[in-house]
Amino acid sequence: MSHVSKYAFIHARIHGLMAKSYFDERLRFLLKITSLLDLSRTLFPHQDMENMDGDLVADVQRKFENSIIDTLVGILSFFPRAPELLVHVLREYDYRNLLTLLRGKFTGLTDIRLWDTGKYAVLGGGAAKDFPHSLEKTRFEKYIGWMDTMPLPGLEFQIARQYHAELMSCVKNLPSDERKLLAPLVHTELLHQNLLWALRLKFYFRMGFDEAEKYLFPFGFSGILKQARRVFELPADDPAAWENLVPGKIFSAERGGLIDPEAIEGRAARYFYKKLRHFFYAHPFTLASVYAFFRIKKYEARLVTSVSEGIRMGISSRELAEILGAS
User: Quick check: pTM over 0.85?
Assistant: First the structure.
């Protein structure tokens, strides 16, 4: 069976879903909304409102993210056997569940809500009640011992490293034609994730490169460590010196003349989204294109989260558009 015939139906469905996504003009329409109630009615015109007296922001965000999960699970159902790579992208929600559970343990938080990916879930609906025993006989079992000896930032790093290690494994297991398409894209993601992690270690934990190196995950790409070292060498008060660190001038974001890790993280997300979108349209009728779609939909959830937070904080539509790169 050719790639075209294999992916023709899926390709048509995801193109239709892309047209209904909140990017470009549809995103600019969302940015004009100034009320959380109006935002919810726009996103969910056929659903009754919940938590009218509670946290409407959390309700909007959770409903929209659940709609993304439903979309991705629906796409997986079109395959006779769901591709390992796509299942792994969906299971990012399990990694987020694990992080939520660990944060609950360290902070004493008891009102824990987990994401449900149905039959693809690693952690079931009762994971919070039976935590940490719910990790037994799963890919997260090692965290049972680690949580007694490792601080929360260390555990967060281990989660990120494990997710990307398994992502790399999925790519390596692909047929050669798909692997050649996806490997450079995943390498770009891996580079960005390492540089962003290095940035956090430098600015939030005041580490030098020698200490921080053990918290990076280059997976054999020597160029990643070389670029990460530069994060620790460049001066924080000279943003211009950072602009050529990676393509796209991601590190040119600044606040008050200083490097701003939070702004840089947003810029990196926008850069990678644009790369994914080009990739999606450039490689139709391939698993690689579907992978890009999965990642794009998750970026859409991030945008809706930002819009809802912006409305709550009273940020003007113009300022929010600049932050999201939608101006």
Answer: yes
